[in-house]
Amino acid sequence: MLNLIKDCVVKNTLKVERAKKNLTQADLAKLIMVSRQTIHAIESGKYVPSTVLALKIAHIFETTIEEVFELEESDWSK
Amino acid sequence: MKTYLPYYFRRIGIAFVFVAIILSTIANFNEVVKGFHEGSTRALRQRDRTYVEENSVNYHIISAELKKTLTWVSLSFSFAGFLLYMFSKEKIEDEFIERIRYMSLAKSLLITWVITSALLIIHGGLELEGFYILQFQLFLYVVIYNYYKKWKFMVA
């Protein structure tokens, strides 16, 4: 309960996808209507986004969620 | 956790808390004077063992009635301030901020319970009024929330 933010470690390629689209964290945050802090937390693996947010991110990058986010082996044991 | 108030209510809440601190200090001014006087008398006696206090000091500058009123008003301002802060929106409200709020609320509740229980177990005769426990929890919420928002998940 006390660590709602980081129950799983989900790898993501947000930084790479941002670089492909030439977007800063602030740009991406504005596009999906979240704070820059949220984008930073997702990229650094400190926060796992909700399904809706993950779908929005994938839509912005014109790719699928699986291309951006990847489950780690350790997540299956939780 | 739903937030209902615009962002600027946060500043109003902080202002209320400052007012509460000032009123609380005024309410306990008698104790401030007493403590200062006793401390200075002790220091003077250490320097000069023959020192004798010439005039007795009046510690009752604030009457008991005024003290009670100021304490009650201070507590009200404090509650109002913390609640305004708690229920005011961030500049950008998103799911991450909501998660931080829930975590801060849960942790502040848990820590308050632990500390209150520990105090009651250690000192069974301690009389802890509900208002002060609630105030402590609200204060703890603000501290933990800001720790998460501005330090732990700070943007580089």
Automatic annotation (TrEMBL), chain A:
SMART domains: HTH_XRE. Keywords: DNA-binding. GO terms for molecular function: DNA binding. Pfam families: HTH_3 (PF01381). Transmembrane segments: none annotated. The keyword Cell division does not apply. CDD domains: HTH_XRE (cd00093). It comes from the Bacteria. Residues 14-68 form the HTH cro/C1-type domain. SUPFAM superfamilies: lambda repressor-like DNA-binding domains. This is Transcriptional regulator. It comes from Prolixibacter denitrificans.
TrEMBL record, chain B:
Keywords: Membrane, Transmembrane, Transmembrane helix. The keyword Transmembrane helix applies. The chain crosses the membrane at residues 12-29, 69-87, 108-126, 132-148. The keyword Membrane applies. This is Uncharacterized protein. It comes from Prolixibacter denitrificans.
